[in-house]
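Supplementary notes for students who missed Thursday's class. We covered one full example, reproduced here. Read the sequence, then the structure, then the short commentary at the end.
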Amino acid sequence: MESFTRIEAVAVPIDIINCDTDQIIPARFLRHLPDDGGYENYLFHDLRFSKDGAAVPEFVFNQARYAGARIFVADLNWGCGSSRENAVYALVANNITCVIAPSFGDIHFSNCMKHGVLPVVLPRAVCDAMRADLHRTEGATIAVDLAAQTVVGPDGTEHSFEIGAFDKHRMLNGLDEIAMTREYDTEFDAFERKHAQAYNWL
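Structure (token representation):
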């Protein structure tokens, strides 16, 4: 996965409390793999598109003012519901690399980390104010710096956020679960040599 260091980008306000993974990607799309393509259209599919497939102009993610966005600012309990990892695949397919929210579904939070999407927890009042700014000001951007653990909102105010040392390391270095294991290759090799010498009769 790609490393996350710092981004400054247009952000989309998602004013949905308890936005669950079925809203992020409806269950009927789960049989599709990311390599099959189409995941860019699965994100918020039943909110973004009418039954005849036409884009719903009122839905925020369809609005031209948020084109090129890479950040979501959400409300309480983003990513709750089922544990479907595909919800993160849909975010990645739309170049969303950071979600800022007052709280997250636990499994979705972990799935984001595994695929290079940084979940940032900030107080609800801060998230509410950011979303209001994003609605009010076309082209408003947010800057997220993982190394410094800061978010600079559309109004220029800087906010600090917490992240575990392990998760910060994996995100800064773009390490998926296999890559994290490979960091210990030297230790693995040393063990194998020592084991072979100690049990050369095997």
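Commentary. The radius of gyration is 20 Å. DSSP finds nine helices and seven strands in the chain. If anything here is unclear, bring it to office hours.
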